[in-house]
Amino acid sequence: MNGEPSRRMAEERDAADPLAGLRDRFVIAEPDLIYLDGNSLGRLPAATPDHLARVVRQEWGTDLVRSWSTWIDWGRRLGDTLAAHVLGARPGEVVVSDSTSVNLYKLAAAALDARPGRRTILVDAEEFPTDRYLLQGLAEQRGLTLRTLPSDLDEGLTVTDVRDALDGDVALVVLSAVSYRSGSLLDLGAVTAAAREAGAYVLWDLSHAAGSVPVELAANGVDLAVGCTYKYLNGGPGAPAFLYVRRELQGGLRQPIQGWFGQRDQFRMGPRYEPAPDVDRFLVGTPPILSLAALEPALAVFAEAGIDRLRAKGMALGELMVDLADAWLTPLGFTLASPRDPRRRGSHVSLAHPDALRISRALISEAGVVGDFRTPDRLRLGPAPLYTRFVDVWDALDRLRDLVARGVHEQLPVASPRVT
Amino acid sequence: MNGEPSRRMAEERDAADPLAGLRDRFVIAEPDLIYLDGNSLGRLPAATPDHLARVVRQEWGTDLVRSWSTWIDWGRRLGDTLAAHVLGARPGEVVVSDSTSVNLYKLAAAALDARPGRRTILVDAEEFPTDRYLLQGLAEQRGLTLRTLPSDLDEGLTVTDVRDALDGDVALVVLSAVSYRSGSLLDLGAVTAAAREAGAYVLWDLSHAAGSVPVELAANGVDLAVGCTYKYLNGGPGAPAFLYVRRELQGGLRQPIQGWFGQRDQFRMGPRYEPAPDVDRFLVGTPPILSLAALEPALAVFAEAGIDRLRAKGMALGELMVDLADAWLTPLGFTLASPRDPRRRGSHVSLAHPDALRISRALISEAGVVGDFRTPDRLRLGPAPLYTRFVDVWDALDRLRDLVARGVHEQLPVASPRVT
C-alpha cells in the first residue's frame, strides 16, 4: 500500500466491517487491553457463563445422573455443528472428544494400521511439538521411520515440498493446515490429492485453522483431521478437541484405544469389543461434560458469522498488521516471519526479533498488549477476526513500536520460555 | 440384627452421625428425591457453581491466556490433593488427566513394555467393560493373550483366585478395587504382593473405590492405579480422571501417547521427545481446565471428612440396606447380589431381580428414588456416605418394596439398557 495506514483509516475499516457487531458477543473485561492471542486462547463468549451455570445447577445439580440421556450425544452433536459451520464436513463425520494430542494419536495409529507394509511417516520438521512427539513415539513403537520435511521457518511448506517427499513407502503424512508459528497456510485439497495418488493418508492438524480459514474438508476430499477448540473456536481453556474421519473410511479404520464410548451398543456392556459402525468408534471414555457445555454457545456464533467472512476479515487484519510492521517495526530490528502473501497465511502473523521473548513479556506487562512468544525468536500476534477491531491492530503496533523504541523491554531480566 | 430396623432407628443413626453436617456442603435441589447413584455421578458440591463461575469470568474472561501460569499445574496440584486425602499416596505420585479409559491405556501399555517376554494379561471376567475392551485391544495389537479370571457375579474375586492364576507368563493384572456391579472389595495389599512375587504388575481401577474406601496406595505398595473423579469424588459429569504411578517406578516407565504435556521442559518445544523425569511424563495434551476447576471444591471436603470415617459410615449405610432388603425385598423376589460381609463390600449394594431393568426405571419415575440398572438383572443402589442419610436408605427401600409389591413397574414397557 502507499504510505503507512493512519488510525483514522483503521476506524473507517471498523465502521464498514460487517462482523463488527459480533464483538459484543464476547466479554471484554478490560477495554484497554488489546488481546492478540485468540489463536492461543479464544475470548470468553458472553453467553457462556450463564449457559454453563445452567448446566451445572440444573442438569448436574438438580437432574443429576438422569441428564446422561442428553449428555451422551453431546460429542456427536457438537461435532455436527462444527462440521456444518466451521469445517465444511458432512453430518456424522466429526466428534468432539479427548485432547488434540490423544485424537492425533488415535487417528495416526488407525491410519498406519490401514497401510501395512509402508514404513515411513512424514511430518513437517516445524510441526507443532506435540504432533512430532506423538509421531516419534508411534514410529518407535512400530519400528517405522519418522521423516521430517525441512520447512522454511517463515514461509512453511509448499504443496511441491510435500509432493516431492512422497513415495511408495509413505503411509502417513501429518501436517498443519496453518502453521502454529509462522501462520503459513497449506492447500488442503492439493496436498490431500497428491498423497492419495501416492497411496498415503494425510492427517491434518487444524488447530490454528478451524474458525479462521475455510478448510472445506468434504470439498477438499480430506480423509482425516484433528484440531482444538480453544483457539479461534473460543471453547475455553483446554476445551475438548475434535476429530474428523471421512464417512467412507470410518468402517475400515480401527483406533487403538478401545474404550466403552467406542463400543457398539455401549450399555449392553457385552463381553467383547465391537467398534461402533460410525464415527463413534473413535471415541474412548466418558467425556468432560462441563468443558463440552462451554462449547455450545461458543460454536453458535459461527453459523451467523460465516467462515468466508471471517476469512476475509482475518486477511484484512493481517494485511494491516504487516503494513504497519513494515513501516514501524522493520527500522527497529523486526523482520516479518510469516508469508507476505495473505493467501498463504492464516489469521496470525509472526515477527522475528532477537529480543522477542523479553519484548513479548514487556508488551503484556507494560503496554497492555497480549501476544505470545514462540521459539526461537518470534513474537506471535493473532488478531482473531470475531472480536478484534482494526483499531486494535493499529493501537497494538503503535504501542509495540513505542515500547521497543524506548527500550522498555531491556529492563526486564532475561528468562526462559514458559507458558504465556 | 434382631427384627427389621425401624425408621426411628434410622433417625437416631443420623442424629449420632459425625458426618451428618457435610450434607449441607451439597446442593439438594429436590428434597424428596432420594439419590442413591452417587457411585455413578456424585452430587453437586454447594461451593462448585461459584468457584466455577469465578474461574470462567475472572481467570478466562478477564485474565485470559495469562492464567495459564497457574492452570499449567492444576493436574499435578489436584493429584497431590487426591494423594493426601483420598488415595494414601505420596506427593508427586498422582496427576489428574484425560479419561479413566485413556489413563488405563497409557499405564497398561507402559507396564507391558516393562515386562518384555511375558505374554499374558489377566483381567477379571466381570471387570468394567471399558477396561476389558482396552486390554483386548492392547493384547491384539501386541499378540498377547488376554486371560479372563472367572469371577462370581455377586461375590467377586478373592486374593486366592488371583494368586492361583498368576504364573511366570503374566505381565499385567488389571482389577477393580471395588467391583462396579457387585461392589465386592479386593485386598489391594495382598493382591499387589502376590503379583509382585510372580513378577507381574497390578494396575488397579479405583473408580468405585476412590472416596468410598481407604485404598492406602503407599502402605499397600501399589505400583499403578487409575480412577475416575465423578463418582464418590463429586467432580462433575465426565470430570477428568486420575492416574497414580509409584514414585520409584516413574523414571523406568514410558507411556505410548507422547504428548507435549509429558515433555521435559515443555515450552522449549525441542526437536525430540524427552519424557519428564517425574509423574508428568504420563500427561498428554492440554487439560480441560473448566472440568478441572470443578474438582477443586469437590476434593476440599475430603480432608475434613476423613476417608476412615467415610468408610465407617458407608459400611453402616450398606448394612442397613442389606438388613432391610432381607426383611422386605427377599419376599418380593430379590436376592442380594453383593458380598454379605460389609468388610468385603464397597459403598454400593446390588440386588438381583428378574425385572430389575423395569424396576430401576419405575423407581426413578414413580417413586423418586434414583439407583441404576446393570446387566444382566441388577438394581444397583449406592448410598454415598458424604451426603446420604440413614433415613434416605430406609425411605428408599420402603418406596422400593411398595412399588414392587404394587407391581407398578409392570406397567412400564420392556426396554433395552441404556444410559441411566
Automatic annotation (TrEMBL), chains A, B:
The keyword Hydrolase applies. Pathway: Cofactor biosynthesis; NAD(+) biosynthesis; quinolinate from L-kynurenine: step 2/3; Amino-acid degradation; L-kynurenine degradation; L-alanine and anthranilate from L-kynurenine: step 1/1. Its cofactor is pyridoxal 5'-phosphate. Signal peptide: none annotated. It is an enzyme of class 3 (hydrolase). Its EC number is 3.7.1.3. The modification N6-(pyridoxal phosphate)lysine is found at residue 231. InterPro entries: Kynureninase (IPR010111), PyrdxlP-dep_Trfase (IPR015424), PyrdxlP-dep_Trfase_major (IPR015421), PyrdxlP-dep_Trfase_small (IPR015422). The keyword Nuclease does not apply. Pyridoxal 5'-phosphate binds at residues 100-101, 128-131, 205, 208, 230, 260, 286. Pfam families: KYNU_C (PF22580). Keywords: Hydrolase, Pyridine nucleotide biosynthesis, Pyridoxal phosphate. GO terms for molecular function: kynureninase activity. Homodimer. Belongs to the kynureninase family. Catalyzes the cleavage of L-kynurenine (L-Kyn) and L-3-hydroxykynurenine (L-3OHKyn) into anthranilic acid (AA) and 3-hydroxyanthranilic acid (3-OHAA), respectively. This is Kynureninase.
